Structure prediction request, 233 residues.
Amino acid sequence: MENENYIVVTIKNWNVKVYDEIIKHYPGNWHLITDPNELTVDNIKSLNPKYIFFPHWSHLVPLEILDITTCICFHETDLPYGRGGSPFQNLISRGHKNTVISAIKMSEEIDAGPIYLKKTLSLEGLGEEIYIRASHITAEMIETIITENPSPKKQVGKPTVFNRRIPSESEVPIEINSLEDLFDHIRMLDVNTYPKAFIESGVFKYEISRPALKTEEIIADIRITKIDNKNND
Prediction:
């Protein structure tokens, strides 16, 4: 009898919501892992999955897990372009309006495995809106994989690698000189748990969220906090 056990491993609320509302109702026996401590060799062997899907996972997956069964992750670039961290922030900062989600077989080299399929993803809207949109597209891709069992194909082309963004890069760059570019910088960082766009002045930090681009202005929310390591002395 064909193995119909599947696992979804994720840490983001929007992926958990889509799992509860959509994915767990697909044919087969579904299991959800949100705690890195549960991603163990013994636990995976006991569940005996045909596939493990990683819609969004920021922790290192042990090679022993990759050796047990087929592990598939979802990367928001047209691989091999854009391997590496912070994919859609890197795309937006480079002027991209659309991208694709690549479903790839995980391997020892990050984002370098063969590709099962790709789906178009719009980069319009606030950062969290893009992630929510991507979670629904990923669910569709998971359904395709479990029903059609496609064979992955080797990546073709010269890889381009993105660096994972660090919190200091959320500061509004002084070289930005258009409302459109400023709006892109703010919106791409407007994600729960992600370092928001910010400006520092004196002892205060101004975090910017929920931007709305108008003809001659941006309207946004501002959160002002005092910078601990600065004082008026």
Q: What stands out?
A: DSSP finds six helices and eleven strands in the chain. The helical segments are 13-21, 41-47, 63-68, 87-93, 127-148, 179-188.
